[in-house]
């Protein structure tokens, strides 16, 4: 692995996305009660991992909805969220072929915490990190999964080459995990992304073209957390805006991309009028745009499987844009 | 396990469902190129298993669609089928908490057969067999999964207490796997069900009430296979009729039921006009009704987890109806 | 028009559907604040009309959802209900080719009642009454539409050959409008149907086959009203059960049928747990089954367009079943 | 009406959107067999109209699909397109409150052309032109509708203040109808838009902020025509990209916007592989972006209802961007 450039968040590079104020961490963990934990696997042709988004009270169920931008992905748990409008577990992200291995280890962890459970709907999203990671080896073990869940903390999550973003690439550059948040009068919106999709990197409208990375798959998983008092239908509206916001950084929404957004709220008493959703929508779109940029500027040049290298976006190219 | 009564298919009991002719086996395997394999686990409080529906040419993808009757279930693979309109793997059925363990073993099997695959969309359905099986133990191993896939044959599948139906109950009785088929001018429709839902057993319109079985979950997985030249949209229309047909045997479509139908065709050249779908719809509904009845009359009284017993429906009660 | 037989509701014929108690009227108008008005057009080859379901407080919006059983229909207003989860107008039913004429007259009526409205989402459902009515003539005028709306009352609605059911046929017999209700601990469920679909009439499981009526279209519109505290997602679950219940009276869910259910609640504060929906689901299914039977037993033999005659189901055939 | 500036298409202003070649007209009418006709109503506080997209062989049905970006709109015809995957009529666009009046006149026109039709599924989209037009007056008559249909021609459609775009505004400026096309190896993609939505105008990534126009509604209707051999599922994928592309010109996807895309093909024999859709997706997104820009640069400053004025975007502001 080569990584001369110090990872920086895009705001540190002088880029301000949108007009709404960020939370104190500018992260999904600005939403009270939402923690993130990650396990990172590197070395020997492997660059993969697990990212866990853990709401405090998941077991009591939380209102939630999923938006499918392009369904070329193996998202676990979607039909039950559609039917019941809730999540009943944390949300995990990982690499494509490890999805079910991770989901099964997740079930082990959940069963250990609920002695009477006989039905569980784990949520596991994935993108394909096969360009930099020997994906067919499926190196993730239950220990890795449990470590991600058990280490979840309310601090700023690691971005770039961490957890489920360790091996992902986007827009011709090394990418990974990114996060951001916005604060509104009545609550907070936080976003975490696993970026792994094609297109031309666009920063505040300016393009930074790069040679496409010949990945086996291209996808984007977006998690939106909030404490706004929204019901599942309204969270679905937020989730669709998360998909729309991918366009702002240059996604080409390619036919082989698994683009999903899942939105949940920690607030179980919906009281929000639809006509007032304009600012929450804006908050989602600004947070997704900034989280996607952070996933790139926080990533480091990485060499992995079959000696493939994906380069970090040079920060000076971004700084020179402005 | 107690099972005095010899299992019989519902036609052997004098019940004829509908008016269309059945295929030679009256089974999903009447559709050319469709095979079924099953692994059954019993004993020591366990009654569970795996059922594999294996189309010959799955790897080249087959047109398919999924209908969600009630999404309280963990069906793996649905969003990609929605997006691309195809299955690219066989279809597995199992017990709820084993779903992801089974899916991961399935990935192992698929990777071994495709040395270049880095993305796969396994289809795994489930119902909750926790009343008769120690579901939290998750006893299914990769060996069980691979045995079901490897043993797939074009003969009449085992019905009742076999494979994924080993521990399931429906309509107050022991149920399990059932299958049936209908032959049309232009092709065959075959159905296989994993029956595990609540309601009042209804045979050709006559009710046979039974004490409800206090199951932790109630669900029905329905697989519809055909060789009719249908596209994925049309297969979705068939799949919805499969859900509708559950009513004919007395399903109450309870809020906690995971009721899904997946329909696929072995024919990749769609040429069927929608106005001609009346008979295929009828074929699906007749086959589902008969397969569900077979899942009951072929099942045997079973004792399992925590000494729970589910009784087979007494055949004389059915014969006395007519 | 010939109609020797006195129309009777199916309960008067000794048929009791289900086990839950009905409301005082056994009608959708048992839901407090829900009124029904109808305009009936007959003579000169015309048998058509308008049925209006008018909730008192529609203008403040009411939680609602639509289920599409088979989308071969021209239902006006569905995408906005899907997005916002509410109705903002009454619900009208009519004949297919008059749908937009009716919707435009409906807009006139609504604009007159809201001097500032510049956007409205009228809900208009339809089925094809072209077998008995000269449908291409589109005889319904604004006066007819406004009369249906203005005459809405909380009494027992006319059933059979009334309003939008004047010219419809179902299951080989003359059909029309039907209604029924069920009372639960926490509220009431009421249903009104416009029945116009194919299949074999089934009464409590017993079939009464009849020569198919060669209608140009076959469809069923179902309106479910309640005062239970449900949100739009839950109302969608109820609406799907309304579609499933069509099977109980023998619907064949033919490919050319426009089968829709719209469910709304007069209660704007959702507090109902999904695990408690079993009885509301049962109430919907019982009410739909009984409303559909009422639509037949209350209808009278009718002769109309091109001298087509549709016969009422002979009551003694139903009474002899039991 | 004031309009000093000569309307120009955005390419005439030196702006080139994307990299794919346009068709000869750079319009939806580059797709062989697709014609456009429009009726424009202006004066006395009215700025509205009708735009008709008329495929030659509509009556034989054409594969089609609809994508709902935000369902706050009254789109007529969507559920049948979802079910059957075809359009069976031309597509009309108009102003919100005239939707059903237009649809009824459309039925008149269709019935006159098909002496045996008793069921029709007209497609009518709308946006709210109430800021510049006295929308409650519903001034559109059958004559206006029939004129739009009858005048349909394969030439370059009028853009800006024409037809259904006469009174619409977008991104703080006067907008209207826009069109564009792209030519691929295997066929052509053409787009026509009715632009009426909020956000900040963005031209090739550069923002041109403007005072928001206080419109009563904000929406965008997008029609995508092609002769590529796609089935309805694939056309749905194209339609979703049309919604995604709204972001490129600065849409904020506000909660009150009715954003819909309908895609159809004149080619009834689907043979296109999903893995080859990358370029068709690109063609859709480039065409939508350019059509939306054309809808603005071709529009003229307009004064209408209640003396509201919407200003055309000054061309020099766009030219100065580059």
UniProtKB/TrEMBL annotation, chains A, B, C, D:
Signal peptide: none annotated. Coiled coil: none annotated. It holds the Pfam family Peptidase_S58. InterPro entries: ArgJ-like_dom_sf, Peptidase_S58_DmpA. It comes from the Bacteria. Belongs to the peptidase S58 family. This is P1 family peptidase. The lineage of its organism: Bacteria, Bacillati, Actinomycetota, Actinomycetes, Propionibacteriales.
